[in-house]
Amino acid sequence: MDATFEFDWAAAFGSIPHLLPGIPWTLLISFGGLAFGFFIGIFFGLLRISPLRWLRWPAIVYVEVFRGTPILVQVLFIFYGLPQILGGPINALTAGIAAIAINSGAYISEIVRGGVQSIEIGQREASLSLGLSRTQAFRYIIWPQAFRRMIPPLGNQAIISIKDTSLFSVIGVGELVRQGQIYIATTFTAMEVYLMVALLYLAITWTLSILLRQLERRGLAGQ
């Protein structure tokens, strides 16, 4: 083993221009998947609190399956497995977005369920007594309050989904890790490049955390 290794800062900073093209792919996959996952999560989250058992059970199965299996396995199944069923290839970008959507949707459904159930039942009863329908009570009274309470866990899920995109290099998506692998193959500077990859991920998630804290404060101020 070479005991004279010295970290090459020039190589580390020199890798940045080669890594930057991966940022748009990372953001596109994570936020594209989260957008779909949010609507999936609302749908299954509301099914989870349905009084009808035949509506609750499909949602329970969905949540347990996709929370209980690794997202890496899910994206490999979508990219390599589904084409055998569909009879045609699936684009790597599409597979990545789909994996983030179905995986984050399972977690978001539980966030939605918890947020709605955290609102005191007395508020629903008071809304009905004022002449609002159940739908109106949910839309104007329950959901706005529940959504404000969901902001912190939704933000955490967004950060997790951004980091999950690092796994999609296995299917050739050109996100940050994949760009780093390509650069390392020609420069053999793994330590330096992966450090910069980590710092770029940190910059993205830190910026998002600041924005989410601002949004959370505004939400609390509106209560």
Automatic annotation (TrEMBL):
Q: Which GO terms describe its molecular function?
A: transmembrane transporter activity
**Primary location group:** membrane
* GO CC, alphabetical: ATP-binding cassette (ABC) transporter complex
Matching Gene3D superfamilies, A to Z? MetI-like
Alphabetical GO biological process terms: amino acid transport
Q: How does it sit in the membrane?
A: Multi-pass membrane protein
Record keywords: Amino-acid transport, Cell membrane, Membrane, Transmembrane, Transmembrane helix, Transport
Family from the record: Belongs to the binding-protein-dependent transport system permease family. HisMQ subfamily.
UniProt protein name? Putative glutamine transport system permease protein GlnP
**Organism from which the protein derives:** Vreelandella salicampi
